[in-house]
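Thread amino acids onto this structure.
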């Protein structure tokens, strides 16, 4: 299962990671977020040695989404060396997310 990022652990687990990080900003009431959740978990299982895959619940953690201007969910940000290197808004197929992530590995 994907890592749960929070306002408290985001700096350590995302910004200071030596691997690329995919962050899924989501909420439990969001239908498209629930639809993409299994894809995020599959990516975690398949890529956990090469990348960090996780989620931020925007209802429970408001600082991180506000800091990165997340206004729509699901929003997926890819970080590398502490910087945003890619952004996708909305539900995406697994193939698209794999393509984006592998470009930054």
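Threaded sequence (105 positions):
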């Amino acid at each position: 299962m994907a890592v749960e990022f929070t306002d408290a652990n985001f700096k350590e687990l995302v910004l200071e990671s030596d691997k690329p990080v995919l962050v899924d900003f989501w909420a439990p009431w969001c239908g498209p977020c629930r639809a993409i959740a299994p894809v995020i978990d599959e990516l975690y299982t398949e890529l956990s040695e090469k990348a960090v895959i996780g989620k931020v619940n925007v209802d429970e953690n408001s600082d991180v989404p506000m800091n990165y201007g997340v206004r729509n969910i699901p929003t997926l940000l890819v970080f590398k060396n502490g910087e945003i290197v890619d952004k996708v808004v909305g539900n995406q197929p697994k193939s698209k997310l794999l393509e984006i992530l592998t470009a930054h590995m």
